[in-house]
Amino acid sequence: MNTMLQVARMRAPRDLTARALNKVGITLHNPHTSSFICEECGRIWSAGLKRGGRFFRGWWRCPNGCNT
Ligand SMILES: [Zn+2]
């Protein structure tokens, strides 16, 4: 998957490896739906894919703001 992210600030993961995701405190929950789990509060959310296979801006951020 080629998902070069446009998020310039913060520490957006460069890819979806467990190591990269762990740096921002999240874990991939379901690769098929692109949902993630926040390791801080356990919240699960879907990043959703835009056309072209790109994630939404800030997709890796917990909706509860744990890792912002
Ligand atoms: Zn959280």
Give a short overview.
By secondary structure, the chain is mainly beta.
What does this molecule look like?
- By secondary structure, the protein is mainly beta.
- The protein has one domain (1-6, 13-68).
- The protein is built from 1 helix and 3 strands, in the order αβββ.
- The chain has a 3-stranded antiparallel sheet with strand order 1-2-3.
- A hairpin with a 5-residue loop joins β2 (35-38) and β3.
- It is globular and about 30 Å long.
- The chain starts with 17 loop residues before the first helix and ends in a 22-residue tail after the last strand.
- The model has no long low-confidence stretch (mean pLDDT 83).
- Bound molecules: zinc ion.
- The site of zinc ion has 7 residues, from loops.
Helical/strand content category: mainly beta
- Give the count of structural domains: 1
Share in helix? under 10%
* Envelope shape: globular
* Termini separation: 25 Å
Strand content: 15-25%
Widest β-sheet, arrangement of strands: 1-2-3
Rounded radius of gyration (Å): 11 Å
Low-confidence stretches: none
Helix and strand run: HEEE
- The number of distinct helices, counting runs of at least 4 residues, comes to 1
Mean pLDDT over the full residue set: 83
Major β-sheet annotation:
3 strands, antiparallel
> Bound compounds, please?
zinc ion
Q: State the total count of DSSP E strands.
A: 3
